[in-house]
Request: fold
Amino acid sequence: MRPVSAETEMVLVDKARSGDRLAFEELIRRSAEQLYAVVLRFVADDDEAREVTQDAFLRAWRSIGSFEGRSRFFTWLYRIAINEAKRRAEKHAMAGQPESLDAKGIPDAPDWSEAPQARFEQAELRDALEVAVRSLPLTYRAPIILCDIEGLSTSEAAAAMELSEPAFKSRLHRARLSVRASLDHYFLEQER
Amino acid sequence: MKYRPLRNFRFMREHRWSSDHLSDYIDHELEVVERERFEAHISVCPECHRLLATLRRTLESLRDLGGTTAPSVADGVLRRFREQG
Reply:
């Protein structure tokens, strides 16, 4: 899902590049929620996701003059946000804090208290998936989030991660296998 | 049963190749010849067959995860942009 159509995005970006603050504010309105949803999967919690989202937009504004338009604006924004999330993860690691593996930031935990079995199983799978994705190191988590959750093409996601397409595909494949392996017990139960 | 080392070697070679190309197959990024090679192995290898099916289910479930909505996020970004941008 894309927050802005390519044409409108291009017009707004061009205006912002020439210093039009209102055009950049429009880009914020249209993209902030989407970027936040992505960032939330990289960081510890809601507060940190909001901070990273804000920092990413501020960095984007300050360097929008260097944005050459070779990728979509949102792809460029992803790259800035991922780098910011990485910086924070490294800081947490240096401070001895674990890299967001807790369930604190996992969104929309469903209430299945009175739900039928099928819904319970679906909710169980969803939670297991969130944990499996969060358990991946950031360099493997990003390909899964960008391609398989956000629906970016391989070339867009590779550009956002500043990787060659073959290197990106290799990481994506390994990340997918890892997430699948984490869910194997669930699949085995289903097969019984 | 007769031991056939060449047959085993070929099977294992195809097994490794197919495992490495599961994502390419799912993403429709294999050439026709490669696709046929992959499908030939999958049809005789229960392990790869199951791996393909469960990987597909994993990807379907990932696509359904979606994101968390937080309407006030833009307000926070706009506030900081106006203060510090």
Summary: Chain A has two domains: 1-102, 114-192. The CA atoms of residues 3 and 157 of chain A lie 16 Å apart. Chain A touches chain B at residues 21, 24-25, 28-29, 32-34, 36-38, 40, 46, 50, 53-54, 57-58, 61-62, 107-108, 125-126, 129-130, 133, 144, 148-151, 154, 169, 172-173, 176-177, 179-180, 183-184, 187 (CB under 8 Å). Confidence is low (pLDDT under 50) at residues 98-114 of chain A.
